[in-house]
User: Which sequence fits this backbone?
């Protein structure tokens, strides 16, 4: 079986679009006292509630969203995802901390500047369709441009372009009521894209869609991201969606970010027991890559065997090794940087951490890739010329899900309209008795979709 694994771009070290530091959002009476008081800020959520009547939805969170990446915020219902993302454009006012977009202090922006931010620089796509029911598809997509003051003929032209881009050409004259859920989501996506925002913010856009449409829409986002390289912040409570879409994932619990890393780091090196439980059922072979699984190569190893890229998943490596009947070489920029063999690959699947690489068998310097070397992986793109240190990112997983439409707020609607919190459909139980979405953790061994 050939697995199709989306090619990951190298982890970006680009400058941040959003830079968040020490961010707090506390709901309740006199919220400022909570971050200001070390004793209060150290309380558990339940203690804080009973002592002060406050809920700390976001607690001392710091992160950067880098240019061109898909930054996923994930966590169970109530963990603070929506609050966090709404704070970025001050649809919800933060209680403490700093937020910058391209170096500009968001908390210092006046109303006009904020409006500009929401209309032009950061467009939001919500879970619930926020389409204007009496307007056609074209006019819904043009809505954000209308708010921006773009003239009628230009906005219709641009809207038509984005309608086509999301696969709805021919449906321009329909009204939202004449569309399927997935199509409505595409309209919402087109509307957000049409304003050409620097960053797209998605709040659980696909969770209302059925699994097939959801997968379609996930693929759509992946495609748009690949083609346009747009920066995205994507909220989901669905682990498979996070692993599929995220370049990096911030995993939230009770308002805190408990781990921030690539999918491979989250699955391969969970920061604590909570994260470990969270990712327990992920098919590791579809997320972990040769970079994690490889051992140092001997001179003999480096001369033979199929070639894999460091970002090739362990699943791909298993296939290559099984076909060849020999270990496979991991090649980076034409050099053999390691070897994956049966033992290493089995160890990864079994969750047995490979021993730390030793230098005893390492070929120094790494052997060049012979011209005639067979190439066994489907992964493409990023390897050539890649700085090895920058290649810690990850194999991704193919899986499925979808997008959701956004109300007028997407392109600069007013804060109140945009402030509604998404609803979560959870029905399974997570570790610790918390509710957890049923879709979250596929059974080990599930192929194709993590
Ligand atoms: N306006 C508000 N007033 C008081 N508490 C709030 C308010 N909005 C959110 N909260 C609380 O803040 C916490 C985080 O809520 P938030 O909506 O950010 O969670 P979430 O991770 O987006 O959840 P979901 O997955 O259900 O959308 C929850 O405990 C919630 O009850
Ligand atoms: Mg939410």
Assistant:
């Amino acid at each position: 079986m050939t697995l199709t694994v989306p090619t990951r771009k190298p982890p970006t070290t680009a400058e941040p679009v959003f830079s968040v530091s020490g961010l707090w959002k506390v709901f309740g009476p006199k919220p400022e006292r909570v971050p200001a008081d070390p004793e209060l800020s150290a309380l558990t959520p339940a203690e804080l509630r009973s002592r002060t009547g406050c809920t700390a939805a976001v607690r001392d969170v710091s992160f950067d969203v880098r240019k061109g990446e898909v930054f996923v915020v994930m966590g169970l219902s109530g963990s603070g995802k929506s609050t966090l993302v709404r704070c970025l454009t001050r649809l919800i006012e933060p209680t403490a901390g700093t937020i910058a977009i391209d170096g500009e202090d968001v908390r210092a922006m006046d109303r006009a500047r904020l409006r500009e931010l929401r209309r032009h620089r950061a467009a939001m796509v919500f879970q619930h369709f926020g389409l204007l029911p009496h307007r056609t598809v074209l006019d819904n997509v043009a809505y954000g441009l209308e708010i921006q003051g773009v003239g009628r003929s230009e906005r219709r032209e641009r809207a038509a372009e984005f309608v086509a881009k999301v696969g709805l050409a021919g449906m321009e004259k329909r009204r939202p009521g004449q569309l399927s859920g997935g199509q409505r989501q595409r309209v919402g996506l087109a509307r957000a894209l049409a304003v050409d925002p620097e960053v797209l913010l998605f709040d659980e856009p696909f969770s209302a869609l059925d699994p097939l449409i959801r997968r379609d829409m996930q693929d759509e986002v992946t495609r748009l991201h690949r083609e346009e390289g747009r920066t995205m912040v994507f909220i989901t409570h669905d682990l498979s969606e996070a692993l599929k879409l995220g370049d990096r994932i911030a995993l939230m619990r009770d308002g805190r970010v408990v781990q921030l890393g690539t999918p491979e780091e989250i699955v391969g090196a969970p920061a604590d027991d909570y994260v470990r439980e969270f990712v327990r059922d992920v098919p590791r072979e579809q997320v972990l890559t040769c970079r994690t699984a490889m051992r140092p190569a001997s001179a003999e190893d480096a001369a033979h065997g199929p070639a894999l890229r460091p970002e090739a998943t362990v699943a791909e490596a298993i296939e290559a090794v099984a076909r060849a009947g020999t270990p496979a070489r991991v090649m980076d920029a034409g050099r053999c940087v390691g070897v994956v063999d049966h033992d290493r690959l089995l160890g990864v699947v079994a969750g047995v951490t490979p021993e730390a690489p030793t230098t005893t068998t390492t070929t120094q310097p790494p052997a060049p890739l012979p011209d005639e070397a067979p190439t066994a992986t489907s992964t493409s793109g990023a390897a050539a010329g890649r700085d090895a240190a920058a290649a810690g990112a990850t194999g991704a997983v193919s899986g499925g899900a979808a997008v959701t439409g956004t109300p007028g707020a997407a392109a600069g609607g007013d804060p109140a309209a945009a402030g509604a919190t998404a609803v979560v459909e959870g029905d399974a139980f997570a570790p610790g008795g918390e509710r957890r979405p049923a879709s979250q953790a596929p059974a080990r061994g599930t192929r194709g979709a993590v």
The two ends are 16 Å apart (CA to CA). The chain has two domains: 67-284+401-436, 288-391. The chain has 16 helices and 15 strands.
